[in-house]
Amino acid sequence: MTVIARVEAIPVNHPLDAARRYGSSRGLVPGRGATLVRLETADGVVGWGEAWGTSTGAKALIDELGVHLIGATLKPSSNWLTDLLQRSYHYSSSGLLTVAASALDIAMWDAFARTLGLPVHALLGGPTRDRLTAYASTGYVTEDNDSGTYRAALETAAAQGYPAVKIKLGLGLDSDRARARIAREVFGTDATVFVDFNGNYTADQALRSIAALREFDIGWVEEPVTPDDRHGMRLMRASGVPLAAGEAVYTRFGFRDLIADRLVDVVQPDVSKCGGISEARVIAHLAQTWNVRFSPHVWGGVIAQAASVQLLASVPNYPHTDHQPEPVWLEHDRGLNALRDELAGAPLPQAGTEVLVPHGPGLGIDIDETAVARLRSDR
């Protein structure tokens, strides 16, 4: 077995000028950012990981945790994160500590699979599908919320052939209805329309909005209330609409009650913050155990995207066999994002809007270190 020789934390950023900023009901983002992990083994194999967001705290924690990995045998598994969280329980099992660990975990899986000459999905049990159905994550909130700009973004996604779209709501009842109506007009009656409130409502506000959207046949409502409002999620059951959540939930322990209490119909961990591929795989197994759908949140750069593809490729078709009533959805963020579009030497392969599962070693992408140097924010 090979050992880990070097670990480097690399903050990267794609700033957006005021005219191009976009976001959700929670607010607009000034840019897209992440902290990458470049992990190199004693044999010269390089694995890459990605931590959510631009926090300098994530880099500091990756530096701190990475020191203890130098000289360690490369063997990615849940054991490493479990031990870390047990030893660091005073710091909580959520937040930046888990975000930093997620990036290290992804990098270890990438390096380990590359060392063996295998794709990550082969180490997760083997592929159950060779292509993934993507939905367009678009219709973002903008500074002026111009309806023409919003409609144009949806028309672009529809013209590209996406069978489903997710739009941002949570700005108030009238706005929610207007934005949902435009989405249904643009995509037609055959497409699936998901809506995302980003937890910007209280339970009563969310229920009123969902009731007002009923005529638009919503596929799921994402984060109708804040991630910590589990009682509010229970109240959402009265809406009769499928519920999705999990992008701001950490580790299997954070997802345990969300799944076991059947508060959601669709579980959405983010590999770049929930604990990496190792924890996301366990969360997928929990979802299968309680017969809940699994669709990761994917809103980072190309490394997080590739890790999510490898994970989804290995998720069982449960409980379906020959006839699957709905795809295992892959989120396709359509916002401006150089960390998604420029960091890899080539994008993930696609056939139309379907993403083809790579069968090359590791995460299936090759990172362009020249692009990393250009986008890093600490130089």
Description:
With 379 residues, the chain is an alpha/beta fold. It is built from 13 helices and 16 strands. The strands form three sheets. Strands 6, 8, 9, 10, 11, 12, 13, 14, 15 and 16 form a ten-stranded mixed β-sheet that branches. Strands 1-4-5 form a three-stranded antiparallel β-sheet. The chain has a three-stranded antiparallel β-sheet with strand order 3-2-7, with no helix packed on it.
SSE-based structural type? alpha/beta
User: Mind telling me the CATH superfamily name of the largest domain?
Assistant: Enolase-like C-terminal domain
The name CATH uses for the topology of the largest domain is: TIM Barrel
As for the number of domains, it is: 2
Main sheet specs: 10 strands, mixed
Indicate the mean pLDDT.
96
Order of helices and strands: EEEEEHHHHEEHEHEHEHEHEHEHEHEEH
Approximately how much beta-strand content do the residues carry? Answer: 15-25%
Helix content: 25-40%
In CATH, the architecture of the largest domain is Alpha-Beta Barrel
What does the radius of gyration come to?
Answer: 20 Å
Low-confidence runs: none
- Count all strands and give the number: 16
Morphology: globular
